[in-house]
Amino acid sequence: MTVTCAVITVSDTRSPETDTSGQLIKQLLQNAGHAIGEYALLKDEPTQIRALLATLGQRPDLDALIFNGGTGIAPRDTTYDALEKELSKTLPGFGELFRFLSYQEIGSRAIASRAVAGVYQSKLVFSVPGSSNAVRLAIEKLILPELVHLVNQIKG
Q1: Are 42 and 8 in contact (CB under 8 A)?
Q2: 105-130, pLDDT tens digit by residue?
Q3: With contact defined as beta carbons under 8 Å apart, do 115 and 142 qualify?
Q4: Which end of the chain is more exposed for a tag (fewer CB within 10 A), N or C?
Q5: pTM confidence score
Q6: Contact, 59 vs 51, CB < 8 A?
Q7: How confident is the model at residue 70, as a pLDDT?
Q8: Rounded (10°) CA dihedral 21, 7, 15, 50
């Protein structure tokens, strides 16, 4: 099964040319046989994040939305805050496992990650940190192994 995904980078500093994490997500998904239905780069502004979430949530061609960036605790890190309350169901295990695997790589700094996953308007949503190492970990170890299964669960 091919899953059609939106890849959204949330950053105040990256441009399409410097968005290595967004490009990595697209590459890893495509290498696994999935499709990219949308790519966007937006500022870490909660109103912009929620507006794009609402727009993408209405698109029947998209199965999953993968956000990267803005999951820390710095004042400008608002992705988690914007997304988490919009999810109708959360997958606590995603964040727990992501932090566990991150801890094995980076140690106790993993506690600052607010990676989250869940369901929004029949779409699977993931939000991961914006570093390329974090993106690779999340996509390869957690998202790709379960993407088809989770989308099928949502679709019933």
Answers
A1: yes
A2: 999 999 999 999 999 999 999 999 99
A3: no
A4: C
A5: 0.97
A6: no
A7: 95
A8: -120
